[in-house]
Amino acid sequence: MRKLPENPSIEIAPSILAADFSRLGEIIGGLEGYVRLLHLDIMDGHFVPNITIGPPVVAMLRPHSTLFFDTHLMISDPMKYAPEFVKAGSNGITFHLEVVDDPHAMIKLLRNLGVNVGISIKPATPVEALEPVINDIDMVLLMTVEPGFGGQEFIPESMDRCRTLRTMLRDDQRLEVDGGIYADNIADIVAAGADTIVVGTAVFRQPCPPSQAVADLKDAARQCRPPR
Fold it and tell me: Residue 197: in which H helix or E strand, if any?
């Protein structure tokens, strides 16, 4: 099983949601050696007001990349579709706490599928809602914008939520954040405890090549290190 990078490390996870979909294979191939994770936003038009990609696209991308496919299921029935994404090549599956009646059952399914397990919460969901399952997962994904579309502004209250979550997690568990993150605020987010940073616009919609945008984000993030 391909695993998440071990802590302590700061990881940049480019989100292909902001990339040119007509050149995805070429684009993600160009990220090899610059990042270790690729973030795949999966939206169903029901849980969030947008539709993106499904397992067939993930399967087509897999031969173009050795990166860890960090797959974020923003869908209403993750238990039904998770096996298809794993079969297509996803290495980690993150599901939303808000859509499952029995998160322990979902975690068990993902463990049996042999992938890393993440749980995400929307901005309005209290971080304390994760307490019953937080010891059983590999990563928490804190949404710092409302899920559904890229290019939104970072919600300032997310900083305190990030700090609280870091105190709830073990050192071997990762804290991922997603939404509104750029070179000018990434250091503050890392200082708040995040160690896995999802970025879309800040990588794929810049005047420089994606590899240079990643390098600039890493340089900015190095100004700080998360508290341990």
Answer: strand 196-199
